[in-house]
Amino acid sequence: YPIEMLELDMDMEADLGIDSIKRVEILGGLQELYPNLPKPNLEELAEKRTIGQVVEYLQRQQQVTAEIAPEPVIIPQVQTQVIEEVIPEPVIIPQVQTQVIEELIPEPVPSNEYADLGQTLLNITSEKTGYPVEMLELDMDMEADLGIDSIKRVEILGAMQEAYPDLPKPNIEELGDLRTIGQIVNYLQSLVGGEKKKPHFDVNSVTTVRVGSNITVDLTPPPIVDPNLPRRPVQLKTLPRPDFLEAQLPEGHICLITDDGSLTTVKVAHALIEQGWKVVVLSFPQSLVSEQLPLPAGVTRVTLANMSEQHLQLLLQSVTTKHGPIGAFVHLHPQFTPEKPGHISYPEAEKAIIKQVFLMAKHLKATLNNAASLSGRTSFCTVAHLDGEFGLGHQGNFSAIGAGLFGLTKSLRWEWPQVFFRAIDLNPTLDPHESAQYIVAELHDSNRYIGEVGYGNQGRVTLVAKAE
Q1: Residue 330: which of 439, 207, 212 has the closest Cα?
Q2: What is the mean pLDDT of residues 70-78?
Protein backbone atom coordinates (compact mmCIF):
# COMPACT_ATOMS: atom_id res chain seq x y z
CA TYR A 1 0.00 0.00 0.00
CA PRO A 2 1.29 3.55 -0.68
CA ILE A 3 2.31 5.08 2.66
CA GLU A 4 0.13 8.15 2.07
CA MET A 5 -2.92 5.88 1.87
CA LEU A 6 -2.31 4.35 5.31
CA GLU A 7 -3.90 5.82 8.44
CA LEU A 8 -3.45 4.94 12.09
CA ASP A 9 -7.13 4.12 12.62
CA MET A 10 -7.24 1.51 9.84
CA ASP A 11 -8.17 -2.04 10.90
CA MET A 12 -5.15 -4.20 9.98
CA GLU A 13 -7.26 -7.20 9.05
CA ALA A 14 -10.57 -5.76 7.81
CA ASP A 15 -9.22 -2.70 5.97
CA LEU A 16 -5.77 -3.91 4.89
CA GLY A 17 -6.10 -7.71 4.76
CA ILE A 18 -3.05 -8.22 7.01
CA ASP A 19 -3.05 -11.80 8.33
CA SER A 20 -1.14 -13.28 11.28
CA ILE A 21 1.93 -14.13 9.15
CA LYS A 22 2.19 -10.60 7.81
CA ARG A 23 1.83 -9.21 11.36
CA VAL A 24 4.80 -11.35 12.46
CA GLU A 25 6.83 -9.98 9.50
CA ILE A 26 5.91 -6.36 10.32
CA LEU A 27 6.78 -6.77 14.02
CA GLY A 28 10.05 -8.44 13.04
CA GLY A 29 10.85 -5.40 10.90
CA LEU A 30 10.15 -3.10 13.87
CA GLN A 31 12.42 -5.14 16.14
CA GLU A 32 15.19 -4.88 13.56
CA LEU A 33 14.81 -1.06 13.47
CA TYR A 34 14.48 -0.79 17.29
CA PRO A 35 16.62 -3.59 18.79
CA ASN A 36 16.07 -2.22 22.33
CA LEU A 37 12.28 -2.29 22.00
CA PRO A 38 10.80 -4.44 24.81
CA LYS A 39 9.61 -7.84 23.64
CA PRO A 40 5.82 -7.56 23.09
CA ASN A 41 3.24 -9.99 24.50
CA LEU A 42 1.86 -11.81 21.45
CA GLU A 43 -1.53 -12.40 23.11
CA GLU A 44 -2.01 -8.72 23.90
CA LEU A 45 -0.84 -7.68 20.44
CA ALA A 46 -3.28 -10.10 18.79
CA GLU A 47 -6.14 -8.14 20.38
CA LYS A 48 -5.00 -4.85 18.79
CA ARG A 49 -7.00 -4.19 15.65
CA THR A 50 -5.65 -0.94 14.21
CA ILE A 51 -2.16 0.33 13.39
CA GLY A 52 -2.63 3.10 15.97
CA GLN A 53 -3.49 0.61 18.72
CA VAL A 54 -0.30 -1.33 17.99
CA VAL A 55 1.75 1.91 18.11
CA GLU A 56 0.16 2.93 21.45
CA TYR A 57 0.81 -0.54 22.88
CA LEU A 58 4.50 -0.50 21.90
CA GLN A 59 4.97 3.06 23.20
CA ARG A 60 3.35 2.08 26.50
CA GLN A 61 5.66 -0.94 26.76
CA GLN A 62 8.66 1.34 26.22
CA GLN A 63 7.47 3.77 28.91
CA VAL A 64 6.93 0.99 31.44
CA THR A 65 10.42 -0.35 30.78
CA ALA A 66 11.92 3.12 31.20
CA GLU A 67 10.05 3.69 34.49
CA ILE A 68 11.26 0.48 36.11
CA ALA A 69 14.87 0.86 34.94
CA PRO A 70 17.16 0.51 37.98
CA GLU A 71 19.09 3.48 39.28
CA PRO A 72 22.73 3.42 38.23
CA VAL A 73 25.00 2.24 41.03
CA ILE A 74 27.96 4.53 41.67
CA ILE A 75 30.95 2.46 42.65
CA PRO A 76 33.59 4.42 44.56
CA GLN A 77 37.08 4.21 43.21
CA VAL A 78 39.18 1.78 45.17
CA GLN A 79 42.87 1.39 44.75
CA THR A 80 43.61 -2.09 43.51
CA GLN A 81 46.52 -4.18 44.56
CA VAL A 82 47.79 -6.94 42.32
CA ILE A 83 48.82 -10.06 44.18
CA GLU A 84 50.99 -12.36 42.13
CA GLU A 85 50.52 -16.04 42.76
CA VAL A 86 53.35 -18.38 42.02
CA ILE A 87 51.91 -21.42 40.28
CA PRO A 88 54.15 -24.47 40.41
CA GLU A 89 55.14 -26.01 37.11
CA PRO A 90 52.97 -28.96 36.13
CA VAL A 91 54.33 -32.36 37.01
CA ILE A 92 54.73 -34.58 33.94
CA ILE A 93 53.47 -38.06 34.71
CA PRO A 94 55.15 -40.55 32.38
CA GLN A 95 52.56 -43.35 32.55
CA VAL A 96 51.23 -44.44 29.14
CA GLN A 97 48.52 -46.73 30.42
CA THR A 98 45.21 -45.20 31.42
CA GLN A 99 45.14 -44.32 35.08
CA VAL A 100 42.06 -43.23 36.99
CA ILE A 101 42.35 -41.43 40.31
CA GLU A 102 39.01 -41.57 42.08
CA GLU A 103 37.97 -38.95 44.58
CA LEU A 104 34.93 -38.98 46.80
CA ILE A 105 32.98 -35.80 46.19
CA PRO A 106 30.04 -35.29 48.54
CA GLU A 107 26.61 -35.57 46.91
CA PRO A 108 24.89 -32.21 46.45
CA VAL A 109 22.07 -31.46 48.79
CA PRO A 110 18.72 -32.00 46.96
CA SER A 111 17.08 -28.71 46.05
CA ASN A 112 13.36 -28.02 46.41
CA GLU A 113 13.61 -25.31 43.74
CA TYR A 114 11.80 -27.43 41.14
CA ALA A 115 9.42 -29.30 43.46
CA ASP A 116 6.40 -27.30 42.29
CA LEU A 117 7.04 -27.48 38.52
CA GLY A 118 3.68 -29.13 37.89
CA GLN A 119 1.60 -26.57 39.77
CA THR A 120 3.54 -23.68 38.21
CA LEU A 121 2.92 -25.04 34.71
CA LEU A 122 -0.80 -25.40 35.49
CA ASN A 123 -0.92 -21.81 36.75
CA ILE A 124 0.85 -20.46 33.65
CA THR A 125 -1.36 -22.54 31.32
CA SER A 126 -4.41 -21.10 33.08
CA GLU A 127 -3.06 -17.56 32.74
CA LYS A 128 -2.24 -17.96 29.03
CA THR A 129 -5.43 -19.79 27.98
CA GLY A 130 -8.10 -18.44 30.31
CA TYR A 131 -9.08 -21.86 31.65
CA PRO A 132 -9.67 -21.90 35.46
CA VAL A 133 -6.68 -23.57 37.09
CA GLU A 134 -8.93 -25.94 39.07
CA MET A 135 -10.29 -27.28 35.77
CA LEU A 136 -6.83 -28.23 34.44
CA GLU A 137 -5.35 -31.67 35.01
CA LEU A 138 -1.91 -33.05 34.24
CA ASP A 139 -3.24 -35.78 31.92
CA MET A 140 -5.06 -33.32 29.63
CA ASP A 141 -3.96 -33.27 25.98
CA MET A 142 -2.79 -29.71 25.30
CA GLU A 143 -4.03 -29.68 21.71
CA ALA A 144 -7.04 -32.02 21.71
CA ASP A 145 -8.47 -31.10 25.15
CA LEU A 146 -7.38 -27.48 25.50
CA GLY A 147 -6.90 -26.27 21.90
CA ILE A 148 -3.36 -25.02 22.61
CA ASP A 149 -1.49 -24.47 19.32
CA SER A 150 2.27 -24.39 18.77
CA ILE A 151 2.58 -20.62 19.24
CA LYS A 152 0.70 -20.77 22.54
CA ARG A 153 3.00 -23.61 23.68
CA VAL A 154 6.01 -21.40 22.98
CA GLU A 155 4.47 -18.62 25.09
CA ILE A 156 3.77 -21.01 27.98
CA LEU A 157 7.30 -22.43 27.92
CA GLY A 158 8.73 -18.92 27.72
CA ALA A 159 6.84 -18.01 30.89
CA MET A 160 8.16 -21.20 32.54
CA GLN A 161 11.72 -20.15 31.74
CA GLU A 162 11.04 -16.74 33.27
CA ALA A 163 9.72 -18.44 36.41
CA TYR A 164 12.73 -20.78 36.53
CA PRO A 165 15.67 -18.92 34.95
CA ASP A 166 18.11 -21.71 35.92
CA LEU A 167 16.00 -24.42 34.31
CA PRO A 168 18.06 -26.24 31.62
CA LYS A 169 17.03 -25.18 28.12
CA PRO A 170 14.58 -27.77 26.70
CA ASN A 171 14.88 -29.32 23.23
CA ILE A 172 12.05 -27.81 21.11
CA GLU A 173 11.80 -30.94 18.93
CA GLU A 174 11.51 -33.29 21.91
CA LEU A 175 8.90 -31.00 23.47
CA GLY A 176 6.90 -31.10 20.24
CA ASP A 177 6.35 -34.85 20.72
CA LEU A 178 4.81 -34.42 24.18
CA ARG A 179 1.02 -34.26 24.27
CA THR A 180 -0.09 -33.73 27.88
CA ILE A 181 0.80 -31.22 30.59
CA GLY A 182 2.04 -34.08 32.78
CA GLN A 183 4.41 -35.33 30.07
CA ILE A 184 5.94 -31.85 29.81
CA VAL A 185 6.36 -31.67 33.61
CA ASN A 186 8.09 -35.08 33.63
CA TYR A 187 10.34 -33.98 30.76
CA LEU A 188 11.37 -30.75 32.54
CA GLN A 189 12.04 -32.66 35.78
CA SER A 190 14.21 -35.13 33.85
CA LEU A 191 16.20 -32.16 32.50
CA VAL A 192 16.82 -30.96 36.04
CA GLY A 193 17.99 -34.42 37.12
CA GLY A 194 20.07 -34.88 33.98
CA GLU A 195 21.91 -31.61 34.52
CA LYS A 196 23.11 -32.72 37.96
CA LYS A 197 24.42 -36.03 36.61
CA LYS A 198 25.99 -34.62 33.44
CA PRO A 199 29.76 -35.30 33.44
CA HIS A 200 32.29 -32.70 32.40
CA PHE A 201 34.48 -33.58 29.44
CA ASP A 202 37.49 -31.75 28.12
CA VAL A 203 38.96 -32.16 24.68
CA ASN A 204 42.47 -32.22 26.13
CA SER A 205 44.14 -35.57 26.70
CA VAL A 206 44.70 -34.69 30.35
CA THR A 207 41.85 -33.07 32.24
CA THR A 208 42.41 -31.45 35.63
CA VAL A 209 39.36 -30.66 37.76
CA ARG A 210 39.82 -28.65 40.96
CA VAL A 211 37.27 -29.39 43.70
CA GLY A 212 37.98 -27.26 46.73
CA SER A 213 41.58 -27.93 47.66
CA ASN A 214 41.65 -31.35 45.99
CA ILE A 215 42.68 -32.11 42.41
CA THR A 216 41.53 -34.99 40.25
CA VAL A 217 43.66 -35.89 37.22
CA ASP A 218 42.20 -37.96 34.39
CA LEU A 219 44.89 -39.50 32.19
CA THR A 220 42.54 -40.92 29.53
CA PRO A 221 44.47 -40.91 26.22
CA PRO A 222 42.93 -39.16 23.18
CA PRO A 223 41.24 -41.32 20.52
CA ILE A 224 43.63 -42.76 17.94
CA VAL A 225 42.90 -42.02 14.29
CA ASP A 226 42.92 -45.16 12.15
CA PRO A 227 46.03 -44.79 9.94
CA ASN A 228 44.58 -47.31 7.47
CA LEU A 229 41.51 -45.22 6.73
CA PRO A 230 41.65 -44.66 2.96
CA ARG A 231 41.93 -41.06 1.76
CA ARG A 232 41.74 -40.42 -1.96
CA PRO A 233 41.41 -37.39 -4.22
CA VAL A 234 38.06 -36.88 -5.92
CA GLN A 235 37.20 -36.67 -9.57
CA LEU A 236 34.10 -35.92 -11.63
CA LYS A 237 31.94 -38.74 -12.95
CA THR A 238 29.47 -38.12 -15.76
CA LEU A 239 25.89 -39.17 -15.02
CA PRO A 240 22.97 -39.94 -17.33
CA ARG A 241 19.81 -37.84 -17.20
CA PRO A 242 17.80 -38.61 -14.05
CA ASP A 243 14.81 -40.93 -14.22
CA PHE A 244 11.51 -39.19 -13.53
CA LEU A 245 9.64 -40.56 -10.52
CA GLU A 246 6.02 -39.42 -10.25
CA ALA A 247 6.63 -38.06 -6.75
CA GLN A 248 3.87 -36.12 -5.02
CA LEU A 249 3.98 -34.40 -1.66
CA PRO A 250 2.13 -36.05 1.24
CA GLU A 251 -1.50 -34.95 1.23
CA GLY A 252 -2.06 -31.45 2.61
CA HIS A 253 1.68 -30.62 2.65
CA ILE A 254 3.44 -27.74 0.91
CA CYS A 255 6.82 -27.04 -0.68
CA LEU A 256 8.79 -24.14 0.82
CA ILE A 257 11.22 -22.45 -1.60
CA THR A 258 13.71 -19.76 -0.60
CA ASP A 259 13.93 -16.83 -3.00
CA ASP A 260 17.33 -16.18 -4.59
CA GLY A 261 16.05 -12.93 -6.11
CA SER A 262 16.30 -14.21 -9.69
CA LEU A 263 13.90 -15.51 -12.32
CA THR A 264 14.91 -19.05 -11.31
CA THR A 265 12.65 -18.80 -8.26
CA VAL A 266 9.69 -17.90 -10.46
CA LYS A 267 10.43 -20.70 -12.94
CA VAL A 268 10.85 -23.38 -10.23
CA ALA A 269 7.63 -22.33 -8.48
CA HIS A 270 5.72 -22.40 -11.77
CA ALA A 271 7.10 -25.83 -12.74
CA LEU A 272 6.19 -27.36 -9.36
CA ILE A 273 2.67 -25.90 -9.52
CA GLU A 274 2.27 -27.66 -12.86
CA GLN A 275 3.21 -30.90 -11.07
CA GLY A 276 0.31 -30.32 -8.66
CA TRP A 277 2.43 -29.05 -5.75
CA LYS A 278 1.34 -26.25 -3.41
CA VAL A 279 4.21 -23.73 -3.14
CA VAL A 280 5.13 -21.00 -0.64
CA VAL A 281 8.16 -18.75 -1.29
CA LEU A 282 10.28 -17.50 1.61
CA SER A 283 12.22 -14.28 0.90
CA PHE A 284 15.22 -13.03 2.88
CA PRO A 285 15.39 -9.42 4.14
CA GLN A 286 15.96 -7.03 1.25
CA SER A 287 19.18 -5.86 2.92
CA LEU A 288 20.58 -9.29 1.92
CA VAL A 289 18.64 -10.10 -1.28
CA SER A 290 17.24 -6.88 -2.73
CA GLU A 291 15.37 -8.27 -5.75
CA GLN A 292 11.87 -9.78 -5.35
CA LEU A 293 10.27 -10.65 -8.70
CA PRO A 294 6.49 -11.19 -9.12
CA LEU A 295 5.47 -14.78 -8.36
CA PRO A 296 3.03 -17.01 -10.29
CA ALA A 297 -0.66 -16.84 -9.36
CA GLY A 298 -1.49 -18.93 -6.32
CA VAL A 299 2.01 -18.71 -4.80
CA THR A 300 2.28 -16.93 -1.44
CA ARG A 301 5.39 -14.99 -0.48
CA VAL A 302 6.46 -14.63 3.17
CA THR A 303 9.42 -12.42 4.07
CA LEU A 304 11.88 -12.65 6.93
CA ALA A 305 12.02 -9.28 8.63
CA ASN A 306 15.26 -10.19 10.41
CA MET A 307 17.62 -13.17 10.67
CA SER A 308 17.02 -14.16 14.29
CA GLU A 309 16.21 -17.79 15.03
CA GLN A 310 13.14 -16.86 17.09
CA HIS A 311 11.64 -14.88 14.21
CA LEU A 312 12.35 -17.74 11.79
CA GLN A 313 10.69 -20.24 14.11
CA LEU A 314 7.57 -18.09 14.50
CA LEU A 315 7.34 -17.55 10.75
CA LEU A 316 7.63 -21.29 9.99
CA GLN A 317 4.93 -22.01 12.58
CA SER A 318 2.67 -19.38 11.00
CA VAL A 319 3.23 -20.82 7.51
CA THR A 320 2.35 -24.30 8.78
CA THR A 321 -0.79 -23.03 10.50
CA LYS A 322 -2.06 -21.10 7.47
CA HIS A 323 -0.86 -23.17 4.48
CA GLY A 324 -0.11 -26.65 5.81
CA PRO A 325 2.90 -28.61 7.08
CA ILE A 326 6.09 -28.42 5.04
CA GLY A 327 6.78 -31.60 3.07
CA ALA A 328 9.57 -30.32 0.80
CA PHE A 329 12.23 -27.64 1.21
CA VAL A 330 14.22 -26.16 -1.69
CA HIS A 331 16.91 -23.58 -0.93
CA LEU A 332 17.85 -21.51 -3.98
CA HIS A 333 21.10 -19.86 -2.99
CA PRO A 334 21.64 -16.30 -4.28
CA GLN A 335 24.62 -15.64 -6.53
CA PHE A 336 27.29 -13.43 -4.97
CA THR A 337 29.67 -11.93 -7.51
CA PRO A 338 33.29 -11.69 -6.27
CA GLU A 339 34.62 -8.17 -5.80
CA LYS A 340 37.64 -9.02 -7.92
CA PRO A 341 37.21 -11.23 -11.00
CA GLY A 342 39.15 -14.45 -10.71
CA HIS A 343 39.13 -14.41 -6.91
CA ILE A 344 37.16 -16.45 -4.40
CA SER A 345 35.26 -14.21 -1.98
CA TYR A 346 33.61 -14.69 1.43
CA PRO A 347 30.73 -12.16 1.69
CA GLU A 348 29.23 -11.57 5.15
CA ALA A 349 25.70 -11.49 3.69
CA GLU A 350 26.21 -14.97 2.28
CA LYS A 351 27.47 -16.25 5.63
CA ALA A 352 24.24 -15.01 7.24
CA ILE A 353 22.12 -16.83 4.64
CA ILE A 354 24.06 -20.09 5.06
CA LYS A 355 23.57 -19.89 8.82
CA GLN A 356 19.84 -19.36 8.27
CA VAL A 357 19.65 -22.51 6.10
CA PHE A 358 21.23 -24.51 8.92
CA LEU A 359 18.58 -23.11 11.30
CA MET A 360 15.83 -23.98 8.79
CA ALA A 361 17.09 -27.56 8.73
CA LYS A 362 16.99 -27.60 12.52
CA HIS A 363 13.36 -26.45 12.67
CA LEU A 364 12.20 -28.58 9.69
CA LYS A 365 13.61 -31.81 11.12
CA ALA A 366 10.43 -32.89 12.89
CA THR A 367 7.94 -31.93 10.17
CA LEU A 368 9.93 -33.51 7.30
CA ASN A 369 10.60 -36.75 9.16
CA ASN A 370 7.00 -37.01 10.34
CA ALA A 371 5.75 -36.42 6.80
CA ALA A 372 8.15 -39.09 5.47
CA SER A 373 6.11 -41.76 7.25
CA LEU A 374 3.03 -40.79 5.19
CA SER A 375 2.28 -41.69 1.59
CA GLY A 376 4.20 -39.41 -0.76
CA ARG A 377 7.75 -38.10 -0.80
CA THR A 378 9.47 -35.53 1.40
CA SER A 379 12.52 -33.68 0.07
CA PHE A 380 15.35 -31.41 1.18
CA CYS A 381 17.23 -29.79 -1.69
CA THR A 382 19.91 -27.09 -1.82
CA VAL A 383 21.04 -25.28 -4.99
CA ALA A 384 24.36 -23.41 -5.16
CA HIS A 385 26.21 -21.69 -8.02
CA LEU A 386 29.90 -22.61 -7.88
CA ASP A 387 30.88 -23.71 -11.38
CA GLY A 388 28.69 -26.75 -12.00
CA GLU A 389 31.67 -28.96 -11.12
CA PHE A 390 31.88 -28.51 -7.31
CA GLY A 391 34.74 -26.04 -7.70
CA LEU A 392 36.89 -28.50 -9.68
CA GLY A 393 36.45 -26.49 -12.88
CA HIS A 394 39.17 -24.13 -11.56
CA GLN A 395 37.30 -21.08 -12.73
CA GLY A 396 37.93 -19.38 -9.38
CA ASN A 397 35.20 -16.79 -9.91
CA PHE A 398 32.71 -17.78 -7.23
CA SER A 399 32.09 -17.43 -3.51
CA ALA A 400 33.22 -20.50 -1.57
CA ILE A 401 30.69 -19.95 1.23
CA GLY A 402 27.93 -21.65 -0.77
CA ALA A 403 29.96 -24.87 -0.77
CA GLY A 404 28.85 -25.33 2.84
CA LEU A 405 25.42 -26.34 1.54
CA PHE A 406 26.88 -29.59 0.18
CA GLY A 407 28.25 -30.58 3.58
CA LEU A 408 24.92 -29.83 5.26
CA THR A 409 22.84 -31.76 2.73
CA LYS A 410 25.12 -34.80 2.60
CA SER A 411 25.28 -34.98 6.40
CA LEU A 412 21.49 -34.86 6.72
CA ARG A 413 21.23 -37.76 4.23
CA TRP A 414 22.74 -39.99 6.90
CA GLU A 415 20.77 -38.49 9.78
CA TRP A 416 17.30 -38.49 8.13
CA PRO A 417 17.28 -41.65 5.96
CA GLN A 418 13.55 -41.43 5.15
CA VAL A 419 13.85 -38.00 3.50
CA PHE A 420 15.06 -37.54 -0.11
CA PHE A 421 18.14 -35.28 -0.35
CA ARG A 422 19.90 -33.62 -3.23
CA ALA A 423 22.62 -30.93 -3.31
CA ILE A 424 22.90 -29.26 -6.72
CA ASP A 425 25.70 -27.12 -8.17
CA LEU A 426 24.61 -25.07 -11.19
CA ASN A 427 27.03 -23.23 -13.43
CA PRO A 428 26.25 -19.50 -13.06
CA THR A 429 26.02 -19.12 -16.84
CA LEU A 430 22.90 -21.33 -17.07
CA ASP A 431 19.71 -19.39 -17.84
CA PRO A 432 16.82 -19.48 -15.31
CA HIS A 433 14.56 -21.69 -17.45
CA GLU A 434 17.28 -24.32 -17.87
CA SER A 435 18.22 -24.12 -14.18
CA ALA A 436 14.60 -24.67 -13.14
CA GLN A 437 14.32 -27.73 -15.40
CA TYR A 438 17.40 -29.30 -13.81
CA ILE A 439 16.17 -28.58 -10.26
CA VAL A 440 12.71 -30.07 -10.85
CA ALA A 441 14.27 -33.11 -12.58
CA GLU A 442 16.50 -33.75 -9.55
CA LEU A 443 13.54 -33.45 -7.16
CA HIS A 444 11.87 -36.29 -9.08
CA ASP A 445 14.95 -38.50 -9.45
CA SER A 446 14.39 -42.11 -8.40
CA ASN A 447 18.07 -42.67 -7.49
CA ARG A 448 18.52 -42.10 -3.74
CA TYR A 449 22.18 -43.22 -3.74
CA ILE A 450 23.45 -39.93 -5.21
CA GLY A 451 23.85 -37.04 -2.78
CA GLU A 452 25.17 -34.29 -5.04
CA VAL A 453 25.04 -33.43 -8.72
CA GLY A 454 26.44 -30.62 -10.84
CA TYR A 455 25.41 -29.14 -14.18
CA GLY A 456 28.16 -27.38 -16.11
CA ASN A 457 30.51 -27.73 -19.06
CA GLN A 458 30.71 -31.52 -18.68
CA GLY A 459 26.94 -32.06 -18.42
CA ARG A 460 25.45 -33.81 -15.38
CA VAL A 461 28.21 -34.93 -13.01
CA THR A 462 28.83 -36.12 -9.46
CA LEU A 463 31.92 -36.70 -7.29
CA VAL A 464 33.63 -40.09 -6.86
CA ALA A 465 36.95 -41.15 -5.32
CA LYS A 466 39.80 -41.84 -7.72
CA ALA A 467 40.82 -45.47 -7.93
CA GLU A 468 44.13 -46.44 -6.32
Answers
A1: 439
A2: 50
